[in-house]
Structure formats: C-alpha cells, structure tokens
Amino acid sequence: MKNISILGSTGSIGRSTIEVVRRYRDKFKIIGLSAKSNIELLLKQIEELSPEIVAVTDEETARALRKRVKVEVLSGTEGLIAVATHEKADFVLSAIVGAAGLIPTLSAIRLGKTIGLANKETLVIAGKIVTEEAKKHSARIIPVDSEHSAIFQCLENRKTSEVRRIILTASGGPFRGRSKKELKSVKVEEALRHPNWKMGAKITVDSATLMNKGLEVIEAHWLFGLSPEKIEVLIHPESIIHSMAEFTDGTILAQLSRPDMKAPIAYALSYPERLSNVVEPLDFKSLRSLTFELPDREAFPCLDLACTALKEEGTFPAVLNAANEVAVEAFLKERIGFNDIPLLIKKVLDKHQKRPCNTIEEVLEADAWARKEAEKEIRSMR
Ligand code: NAD
Ligand code: MG
Q: Could you tell me which residues are beta bridge partners of residue 163?
C-alpha cells in the first residue's frame, strides 16, 4: 500500500489523481489533502477518503471546516508543509499551481519522500536547489507533466551522454496558426478553450501563450540534466505523441497515448510498476494522421523568453515565472490583453539585474521583486 498526500487536491491534477486512487484502492491510500478555495469539494473528498490531515489556505476557513469534520485541519504554509511531511505519507503528489508549491514540495523532498511532480513552477524557480536537495536526501522526483513523463519513460536506464536531444511536443493551444495581430484582441474565454486538455485556468493560458512549453523546457533541463541546446520544441496538434528522445545513433523513442493526464499520474504513482487499464488504448485505424510543425516564435514570444531566462540562469527563471503568474492573473481579470502578457514579462526581465540563486531566500526575494515590478508595469500600461 502506498500512502499519498495530495497538495492541491481540488484542482484538475488533484481530482484526476483521486480518480486513479479510487480505481486502485488496494494499492493507494490518501493520507493528506489540501485546497485553497473549493471547500465544498474538499469536504466531499474528506468524507470519501478519510485522510489523516487536511490543509486550507486561510485560518478562518480552517476553523469553519473543523466544525464539520473530525480530521486535523491546519492552515497557511505550515498546513501545506504538515500535509507534505506527514510521517505516514511516502508519496507526495505536488499539484498546487504556481510558486506556492515550492516550500511544501521542498519540505517533503528534505524528508526523502517520493514526489510526483505536476507543479512545474517548483523546478522553474528553484531547479538547482530542488534537484540538489533531492539528491542529498535520496528523494525521487517522478514527473507528472505528460511531456516529462514521456521523456522519463523514454530515457529509463539509458545514459544521458547517449541523448542527442529531446523533443518536447506541444499542442499549440487554441491560437495555433494565428498571427500576432490576430492575437491582439482574443478574449479570456477563447484562451480558456484548450483543444485537447482540460486543465486549470493558469496552465490553460500558459498553453495559449506557449509559456507552458517554455516552463517545460526549464523543467526538463533540471529533471534530466540536459543542456538547453539539447531541448527542442515541436508543435504536434493531436497530442498523441507526448514527447520524444533522440539518441546518438539516430534512434528516436516516443511515448504515445490518448491525451489523458490519468496516464502520467498513474505511472508516477505506481512507478516502477505499471497499472492495468489506466487509459483507453489508442485506435490507430481512427487516427487519421499525426502532424508536426515548428512553433511560431514571433507570434508566441513567451517560448523564447523562457529559453533565454534558462540560459541567463541565476534569478532569471524565478523572475520570468513570477512575472508570468502576475501577467496571467491580470489577463484573466481582463486588466491586460493577450499580447501584453509577453510584453509585460519582457519588461520585468529587462529591468532585472541577475543575482545568485543558491538559497530559498534568494528565490523568494527574486519572486517578490518580480511580482512588484510586474504590478507596477500593469498600472503604467492602463
Ligand atoms: P488547478 O488550478 O486546477 O488546481 C490548483 C490546485 O492548487 C487547487 O487544488 C487549488 O486549491 C490549489 N492552490 C492554488 N493556489 C494555491 C495556493 N496559493 N496555495 C495553496 N494551494 C493553492 O491547476 P492544475 O491544472 O491542476 O495544475 C496544477 C499544477 O500542475 C500546475 O503547476 C500545472 O502547471 C501542473 N500541470 C497541470 C496539468 C493539467 O493537465 N492540469 C498538466 C501538467 C502539469
Ligand atoms: Mg505538459
């Protein structure tokens, strides 16, 4: 029996994880749950799964919840840390969105727990610290992001020195094929209508700007120890090939399945075993074709902003991420337009003076600085 804590249990990844746990109850037990605002869903999850510990964001909600359930309910960052580090939890599914996932994920790593990592922002902003701590405490990080799960499966037991490049595939999002001019007036509802995946609002907008793929390039760099030149991006609108690895002899291994996050979630949960019948098999007869194109880096500048931040290193990736979080939030609230997202991030990056990024304090300082600068820029744009 694997004991699991879920950080962000009410989100898209959190709910899919619970679906997997529900189907394989003989293998997995839920120890901890956490949520920010969907308390009604959290209540249902508590009733169904009887966790030992629960965390919510604010203390007032925690107090109200304590009156309704018997389980221990905590709040704030301490609450998230308690869920992530509960002594009974051997596996932590990290599925909070944004930089807020860093501290609880890192606290689980420092106890040597196995991490199923969906929260890519953790590696984007603090990749060096997180991977070093994981090594030091023998904590395994298993990717849940579908592209990284694909690469993880393709690279298994193979030397990194034999990898010529990896190719991260991207659906291209809802605005694939549109010019910069056409993107100027797109609406929030359009950006939230992803063609292949149903995900939380932030990552859905990131997919529309291609920032998601940029963050994934940084994530792949830290997960697989590959230099930025070895990480390529290819648009593959059908989302059937989840990513590929090319080896020095010219062989390419790819991982394919229907687009369903339950597949990489189940693989992370059960690794090194495979569960049976997680997703419907692919029907090659009904797949008319698999197509590929290069990303349009001019219409979607976020991809290059992320690749540049990775090459610049230091605090640049943390600044990129924080500015993006603020920009996406502002776009969702209709305070800025779609094309303002990359513009805003670039302005903040241009103002930034690189600093070392070897401690969590340095990461959090860069994150806070970038949020403040991004907010200033938004106000000056209006
Ligand atoms: P979501 O918005 O659906 O869910 C986020 C979860 O985190 C919710 O449970 C919410 O209550 C909690 N949360 C949000 N902000 C918080 C905060 N400040 N403090 C504590 N808890 C907070 O997001 P999602 O789509 O499930 O994505 C979660 C993470 O997984 C993101 O990092 C995303 O990039 C990554 N991811 C998601 C998918 C997907 O298919 N949804 C695929 C790959 C990677
Ligand atoms: Mg992905």
A: 247
Classify residue 8 as exposed, middle or buried by CB count within 10 Å of its CB (0-12, 13-18, 19+): buried
Question: What single DSSP character describes residue 87?
Answer: T
Which residues are near ligand 1 (CB < 6 Å)?
Answer: 8-14, 35-37, 57, 95-98, 100, 118-121, 145, 197, 199-200, 203, 261
With beta carbons less than 8 A apart as the criterion, state whether 215 and 124 touch.
yes
Residue 144 dihedral angles phi and psi, to the nearest 5°? -105, -25
228 CB-near residues (< 8 Å, 6+ apart):
217, 221, 307, 310, 311
User: What does residue 236 show for φ and ψ, rounded to 5 degrees?
Assistant: -140, 90
Please give the backbone phi and psi of residue 210, each rounded to the nearest 5 degrees, phi first: 70, 5
How many Å apart are CA 141 and CA 108, to the nearest integer?
11
- Residue (of 22, 300, 279) closest to 146 by Cα position: 279
What are the tens digits of pLDDT across the range 212-233? 999 999 999 999 999 999 999 9
**Residue of 172, 115, 122, 170 lying closest to 146 (CA atoms):** 170
* Distances 147 to 17, 155, 177, 361 between C-alpha atoms, Å: 17, 12, 22, 30
Question: Which pLDDT tens digit goes with each residue over 41-87?
Answer: 999 999 999 999 999 999 999 999 999 999 999 999 999 999 999 99
- Taking the centre of ligand 2 as the mean of its atom positions, its distance from the CA of residue 297, in whole angstroms, is 18
Q: Ligand 1 centroid vs 14 CA: distance in angstroms?
A: 8
**End-to-end Cα separation, the chain, in angstroms:** 55
Beta-strand pair 114-117/141-143: parallel
The answer on pLDDT for 369 being more than 90 is yes
Q: Which amino acid is at 110?
A: R
The rounded distance, in Å, linking the Cα atoms of 378 and 365 is 20
What is the total residue count of the chain? 382
